[in-house]
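User: Quick sanity check before I run a bigger batch. Here is a single chain. Can you write out its predicted 3D structure?
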Amino acid sequence: MSLTKNDRDEATEPVDQGVEEHIEGRGDDLLGRLRDTAVGKSIFRSPRRVTPRDRAAGHWSNFLLHIYPVKIRRKELAFRYSWYLGVVSTVLLGSLVASGVYLMFFYVPSPANAYTNIQTIQTDVPFGQYVRNVHRWSAHLMVLSVAAHMGRVFYRGAYKKPREFNWVIGVVLLLLTLLLSFTGYLLPWDQLSFWAVTVGSEMAGYVPFIGDQVKEVLLGGPTVDSSTLLRFYVLHVAVLPAMMIFLLMIHLWRWRKDSMFDLEMEDGDE
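Assistant: Done. Predicted structure follows.
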């Protein structure tokens, strides 16, 4: 990775006295004293990073960070750049995972028990009504925030070179968000969810060329029944979340890598 102009200047300049004093007295603060203890040394294997070059070296030597770019443009971290819609979407996803895991302890995906389990969660399970409401509203808000994030990116033209691939990943993440919302709709197994999924699966059947196959994958048969509920449950709690988290990791990594590409281009222009 090429260094910026400031980095090259730092490489040729000696460490000033303030930095040297800071390095020598790094144990004066609470974190420094903690790192100097036996417990701290067992947790923090690398020395404390002070200068930008030290921090870059620590970044490159870390197994979890070595493929992650060291620098990013400051304006991309500002609120006006993205309105933090990506951050909001990620936080909502975390809320959905946490509340969903809690609900899984009390839900059985079978037509005989599903609706009763929902009623039990709302009335007998500690914080059940609250957690279910958090899960439901987080799902609604995540659909809105992801759609708004995509609209903001499109409006700013941030899908252009070199971000074409990351834009495609974002579109896939939007589709996964909609599929997560759709598959979760059937799980209460009431009249509203039953007929909503029936109508939605019929609409999917009209997709050109692959409509019948898509409908078969969703329903597991000609109509909405126990096989459909089981498939929707597996998709909702395992398959789609795993795909979402995997693609989100790539999405965030590419965002940082593409920003690093912009920095290198700006250095080249200089």
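The radius of gyration is 25 Å.

User: Great, the batch can go ahead then.
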